[in-house]
What does this fold into?
Amino acid sequence: MAAGGSVCVRTRRPPADFDQLVEVLRAPNMQVQLILCAAALEDCKRYSLTPIVLPPLADRAAELDRIINEYAKDAMIDLAVSGAGFPPADVAWVREHASSSLPEIEKATLRLVALRASPSLSNAAARLGMAPVSLSRWIGRRDMPMEIVQ
It folds into this structure.
């Protein structure tokens, strides 16, 4: 058991003994958090769990620039990049070309931060732990601002 940790289960493929797990985790002294990833509220009701509803990204247009900037801050931390932040042109580019999902935003901001902080595409690819040709192909499939592509 994940003592002091979390157990995350998707409702579309719960383990065979999930009902028993839920009962064990309801013990008063249990220090394990159950996270149930459900597609429908009914899945939470079945186990008497309180849902936290995350609205679709498409319904969060007013928050999109903040979300992009937060991912960019995380990318700067992950890549040990210091600076003035994520340029507004990059926020606009991510919003326009890479904002259909959170993973897509995360990938785009990470790659843009690496490209901005690196003297060359090869150096940016090394920072990202990927082959330069892969980063080059990713750029080639997108309408990147010319000042980013080196």
